[in-house]
Amino acid sequence: MANALVYCPSGGGKTVNSTRVAVGKLGRNLLLCSDNSSVVLRNFDRPNLDVINLKDIENFTTEFDKSINDEKHDNIIVDNLSDLFDMWILELDASGKFKDMRQAYQTVYQALKRLVRKAGQVNKNVIFTAWHDDREVTLSNGEKVARIAPKLQPKILDNICGLCNIVAYINTAEKDGKKQWYYILEGTPQLYAKDQLFCRKSCLPEDLFNGKGVKA
Hints:
The protein is α/β, with parallel strands linked by helices. Helix content is 29%, strand content 29%. It contains 5 helices and 10 strands; from the N terminus they run βαββαβααββαββββ. A hairpin with a 5-residue loop joins strand 5 (125-138) and strand 6 (144-150). Helix 3 (81-95) packs antiparallel against helix 4 (101-119) and helix 4 (101-119) runs parallel beside helix 5. The chain is globular, with a radius of gyration of 17 Å.
């Protein structure tokens, strides 16, 4: 199947919008939530969504492995990768196993790369969410620009995004006097985004994996 990374600033709608993804033949989606943002869903109708609030990394690993092998869910939403990284580092620090925390960071780097690679090889769709980050990058012509990208460590950012079929930035627009949420799927020097599956410029959250784009 396919995997995707959906990102935006904290409070920008990653949980609300990622859980809008259309169900398939099984008729249910699963949200694995590490940062307690699932509480916002009390304000929205998600009848086909199961939610598991994660206690720790061991809990996440167990539930993720269980969910990719079940016959209950079409899409798994892992909310969120930025927080999972922080949680993992904090747990390793508290464990006292590492005298040099650089080794702990390397352990988590490798674990996250394996996680995202695994997500692209299972028989269901996986959506990762993340917060966003503004970073200065130097273009090939030497120009320095501010670039919006998922909030991940620079050492693994390209690896994680490269292993995802879709990288989507959440944006809003006014239509008929109402705010509409949509995903930007076309990257620019100022924005990290891509759509390897359908080469779209944008889509609605529910259409992430079905190929439909936003009509101009």
